[in-house]
């Protein structure tokens, strides 16, 4: 494209001044490649991190996005804020457990992905983080299968579902307390595992530090870790991998 | 298969005793699926974690494996140990920087993978960890492209190579000191990033804790983290993803 | 001056008792030099750290200062306290985002400073700290240019403004989460950078510890760090440097 | 006994002076009960913590004990020290892996204990701590069964032995790295588990802190924890429990 | 049992299909052994960890359990929640100090245990944790003796009761602040001690970390530790040991 | 310059192909501005961080630089390495205390700076870090005045020199142990202070953490902090400020 | 006394049974010595740690003590609780800043102590802890002189009072933020200093950890430290020393 | 004295110039009072902290001091260094356990102190720190009584000596591992206790952190704490108190 502009200058189609302006745009294109790459992620909804933003701030951002007619996912929204937002924008659906707001502009994605992501979680108390992960994946148009309450203290519950977990493309494994679940799953499956420590626990759990360290030190290979309680991040990494496996990056 | 056995018992082809023995095997197959799944990872070399093992222990384990005529990768081997091992088993090649020993039984993998993994690293001082990752990927038959010394303090060096990094299936991004590189790369590419903090640094680096926390807290999406200095683990996660992208899981 | 007093004693102009009293003052002058030096900082407003002080305590302190007819800056004032204070002293202006109260006695400083300080910040969530820095600098009569929402995860936004940042005398760079922004800016500018970690983040951020360690370990030279969320301190250091550059220390 | 003495004084068998001396002893008996209770632990060998003591100090202490004709267990003895000690006292046997010195005065205990303690350990790298536990139990005359290399990353190895582990009176479960093994075992057995974290690991393991926190936060009930690498302590607790189960406390 | 089924298939009593269904059950029995082992713990009440569960969730879980006509213990229930639950299920008894809810279906256990567990605690401020331990043991049908306010700063109070403590099967020793009590008790008794650190304290106590470290580092043998404030866990370990001593494991 | 090129294309002085090549260069200039800015720092020596580099690596890098005929500063060089390097490159001067190697190509800087930097340090044990700072500043052609052994425990020593410290442009204040010196100096001077914590101390000093926290929490304004033991970094920040004050940025 | 009893038994004045009872008392005297020693601290008020105790609990304890007609000091009492207590026991005086309740039974101590304790504190924000110390000392009948707001950032304020501080028997030095004040005072006085870190500060202060570490690492001799915010403890240590100096231990 | 000078000026005995010079001295006397106060500590030996100083540095400093004919105490001297120093200055006596060098110029102090300091320590492994304290006190001419190996795990050994400990003026109580000893002693004596944590221990002891936190959190009053392993500091505080009790401050 640079070449074209220069030829147009050479043959007088463009004045140097017009060319300069175009090249300024061109120069920005250097960075716009970022967006171009982002475009490859077509169908990805816009995501807003709701924590620390007021209801009215979220409404403003959402309205700006709705003009673009895109799907929207908002994470970490308290029930109170959600009520205020939904009153203004009724097309949002709020999910209490995952604390997510989702607006579906396109009911169907323009493409179809094979397979599913396994969301595996240790206890019912990790549910909120697990559902943030599940709702995120679903908002990105990815099929999710939930395997909840399969913690290591009652490992037969995990075994009852291990085949279905094995058949997933990638697993998001969520655990609080001692955070041992990813290690056990990691020894039983052959696909990548994204481990999400949660802050569930008490005493020497230190707000999730215990589970975080456990997961980083896992003796099973094929496990990588995201931040404490970061259900969204866990799912996002899994989605990128899932799409790679579908060759529609 | 269980059904078959029972029918054989019903029609007298198997005595109950013979069936019991078979079912015992069958029961073990419940776990053997693990190995079956592992078999899917065909062509994967055997990996030995060399730290804390003596030269003679490593020699014994290696010899047992060589009977299986498989490729072997040994990580974290000091130069002194490597010399002792190579004297006994001359088919091993030692790499000083990555501190890995590799033995190639099959020169060529029986399959061919498209694309490559990007190994991106901040400073020359992270070289040892970066090369552990690179040598690991190569031992698994995966093509690697190295982007070294592209740290954030001189970000133009990173930009000079960003297109080639973008075209990788997955990046392993290694950084010590403040560990900011994965965040910057994460904002510029659309594939998954495995971040490896290193213990390189001094003072308030606290043996890699600083870089580890930075990576876990990255505001860029699509980044997951492995343990400090765990070049092998970073590569292993990337390999799993790379194979998924090649549909040969 | 000591010499003068002694001569006055020698020639009887002062009794030893009168001289003693004067010398007591003189002795205090030893420390009063501090204030003399402080006077060099002419035009500096009085600053009150509002946190942990009640509205009525702040009112009392402010009134005492107003007698001196000086500008006043009060940091860390909650909205509730601000309302109570402004009712009593209407000449205060409250800024909600930075949580500062400012009273301008002199509209114009008696001197003019060339150039400006760049306030650079990563995300909208760091706004409160960034604005505390900006309002501080403005209360000290220093021009400020704001570069907000230029975090490393979308580094092209930073590049769009890098020339204007480069032309500042000094930058105050504010970041939470992984705190990588000062390292990136530090690699692109040649003036001193004061880095301010914020407590924005979650999980393994540990109330700003992550960003603090990142900044202390920066591999870019020319970066020094102040306490977590200390927007005032960041600006104050920048002001001292800015004035040095203006030769009006 | 006090009563006896007083009656003897009353009927003149003891002078008040003689009684006083006896009562002094009696008073000490208040504390001597401690030893009396200790006596209940008959057959327990004398234990010396060898770390930080020189070979000659250990020789002196051992000789004093040998006069009492008791079994002796010395923990944390380096090979070099052991050689020096065994030269002086040839009746000691040194075990390189557990770094223990044992001297058996009585080949057979004067009583017989039913059942055994299970020593379960995750990886070969925890062997040293596991063997310190095993040798300790054996020095106390307790039967030990070893279940080594049954870590959670290959959980089928654990299942292969789970029945024999279940039949133990009590388990000492040793693990480094992420320290998840006690949680898994705890979900499969119904007896008490003493968990021993080891300092084996690297990076964010922080010298065993990771495994320690994991074990303290275990969601399985019936697990209590001793200090990092404290194989002796783990075994000692198990021995006390094992004896209780044998009604020979 | 497997043998029986196979023989029944061989002699036509079972069709292969019926056998398969039975063996499915059998296969699950592999893990059901867990429950079988759990059954050995006959008379153990069902336990619910109340923290993080809503009143209505607890009511639902409790009702499901009541169908099984078992005793129920619910820990960590706030007074407010307890009121709501007791209104619905009046057979629950709430204890304010220990914050436990207990429902006794069987007034008497079907067996009788000899001896008692000592619950020893340092200060009145640790009462809540101590009572959680005591109520837990009582809910499991184990006799408890309480030794409260016997902290090391007034050690004569401990000595006044030491004989009665010594005669227990096992002690649960609870302490906050500096957490030294288990060490002192450990030097005076010969049975196992389960140490429970509490978060009681201030300043450098760091929410129980100080007491936790003290107990892990105890120079007295025979002490193992559970999580901070984990009164239930402390008691549960003691109960397992107490039953072993009663030969009714 | 872009404009010039376009005009040359417009009037045929350049072919579009030649222009494209030039613009490629131009595009790189976007980043080359960095170096242009760096050029403003003319006279700055090349700096090599010597730690973790072998003697032969340092020799290679140095030789490459010597071709550019620039001054060279190498920090963190052990005596042993220095000897090896000086044998090869005799023009290097080694300073044992600061562990720096300096090679002066230009005896005189091409410009002259007014004023000086104060290097203030608490104890003789911080000398190594203080001298690294001092030698760095001198290698950059900046005058340094040393105020050593003026720690807060003997504050009269500080007062004896306070006027000379006050007259510096900027102070680098270095302290280990409790790290209180910057706070005290900060209350007595009106210029910016760069605080450098050192790892000197023992016990609860935790390798400099104590001094680092002290400095970050200083109640004196005008203090910013660099990494533990980072004498070079402290000086570098001071040099940038000193040059600003000299209007030769 | 033991001797007397035995002689009485010998000559029939006491029956063995009567003697036994007496000796039981005697045995307890072994520990009663503690109280005897405590009696040496005559005039010491009873002290109650109010935190974590309800108003009614405090009222009960206080009433029991009032029967003994002693002075009472209650620390850490919130205003709300104090109001409730004073309604029931009007003889209590509440101090809002120190949050102490004091009841004076004896207006005058039966003895007179020479000299005074200096309570030195850095900032107005440490006032609450300083006043807890001051009120404690006064409740123990010890004269106190207050030196407030003499922090190291304005060290001339400290110098203005240094002579009066020097003349104290012992100083309690209280500081938050960077906690440097005890080091400075320690270099200027020759009596013992009890340092009290406070949790005042923000960011990297970590609830007083920063000040605590500073004080423990002080390079001035003659400083010992108590827990964070422990104004009572600081004063109590000072009182013990002050009494020693008055020879009325 | 100021008054005198002024009068001399007034009556011509001093010229203003002479007075100025004298007053300069006088001004310095402001700080010299420090030394004057120090002089009150007459008989105190010079103390050198030997760690981090070379043998030749120590020899130089010692020689300078010997001119002053004072006693000298050097702490933290390794055996190797001590040998080198004693060869040069044979009047030094080295003590291997405490690692102190002492030179006695005056055999007898010019004054006599009543009473003694108790040095109480938990285990033989804390001996080095305990002896550093003891040798320090003796070098200052203070009588010391040693109570070693009286740890809380065998508390009857402590009780055997408690009366003699009670009769000391002040106790220095030293403990590693869990550090509980000061709390126990604190409950039994009525004089001040200086607690010294040691780094003796392993695993979760974290180089003395465990003992340090225990001591800071002691529920016994009258305990203050110095840095880890700081035997000298513990003794120094005790000496200051001991002298106060002797009215020879």
Overview in brief:
The first copy, chain A, is an alpha/beta fold and 249 residues long.
Main interface pair?
A-B, 40 and 39 residues
- Rounded to the nearest angstrom, the radius of gyration of chain A is 22 Å
Order of helices and strands of chain A: HHEHEHEEEHEHHEHEHEH
State the major sheet of chain A.
5 strands, parallel
**Mean residue pLDDT of chain A:** 83
Low-confidence stretches of chain A: 25-40
Examine the coordinates and then state which fold CATH places here, giving the name of the CATH topology of the largest domain in chain A. Rossmann fold
End-to-end separation of chain A in angstroms reads 25 Å
Count of individual helical segments of chain A = 10
Q: Kindly estimate the percentage of residues of chain A that lie in beta strands according to DSSP.
A: 15-25%
Helix content, binned percent of chain A: 40-55%
Count of β-strands of chain A: 9
Protein name (chains A, B, C, D, E, F, G, H): Nickel pincer cofactor biosynthesis protein LarB
InterPro entries (chains A, B, C, D, E, F, G, H): P2CMN_synthase_LarB, PurE_dom
Organism (chains A, B, C, D, E, F, G, H): Gracilibacillus marinus
Pfam families (chains A, B, C, D, E, F, G, H): AIRC
Keywords summarizing the entry:
249 residues, P2CMN_synthase_LarB (chains A, B, C, D, E, F, G, H), alpha/beta, 4-stranded mixed sheet, 5-stranded parallel sheet, Rossmann fold, PurE_dom (chains A, B, C, D, E, F, G, H), homooctamer, 15% strand, Nickel pincer cofactor biosynthesis protein LarB (chains A, B, C, D, E, F, G, H), globular
């Amino acid at each position: 494209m640079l070449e074209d502009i220069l030829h147009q200058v050479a043959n007088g189609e463009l004045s140097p001044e017009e060319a300069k302006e175009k090249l300024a745009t061109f120069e920005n294109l250097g960075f716009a490649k970022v967006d171009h790459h982002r475009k490859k992620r077509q169908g990805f909804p816009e995501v807003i991190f709701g924590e620390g933003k007021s209801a009215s701030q979220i409404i403003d951002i959402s309205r700006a996005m709705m003009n673009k007619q895109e799907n929207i996912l908002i994470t970490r929204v308290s029930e109170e804020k959600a009520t205020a937002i939904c009153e203004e924008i009724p097309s949002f659906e709020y999910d209490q457990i995952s604390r997510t707001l989702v607006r579906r502009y396109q009911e169907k994605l323009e493409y179809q992905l094979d397979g599913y992501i396994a969301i595996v979680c240790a206890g019912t108390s990790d549910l909120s983080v697990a559902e943030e992960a599940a709702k995120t994946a679903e908002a990105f148009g990815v099929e999710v299968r939930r395997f909840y309450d399969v913690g290591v203290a009652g490992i037969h519950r995990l075994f009852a579902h291990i085949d279905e977990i094995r058949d997933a493309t990638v697993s998001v494994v969520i655990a609080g307390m001692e955070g041992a679940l990813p290690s056990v799953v990691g020894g039983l499956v052959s696909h990548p595992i994204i481990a999400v420590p949660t802050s569930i626990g008490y005493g020497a759990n230190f707000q999730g530090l215990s589970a975080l360290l456990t997961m980083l030190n896992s003796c099973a290979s094929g496990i990588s870790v995201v931040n404490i309680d970061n259900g969204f991040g866990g799912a996002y990494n899994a989605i990128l991998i899932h799409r790679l496996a579908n060759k529609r990056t």
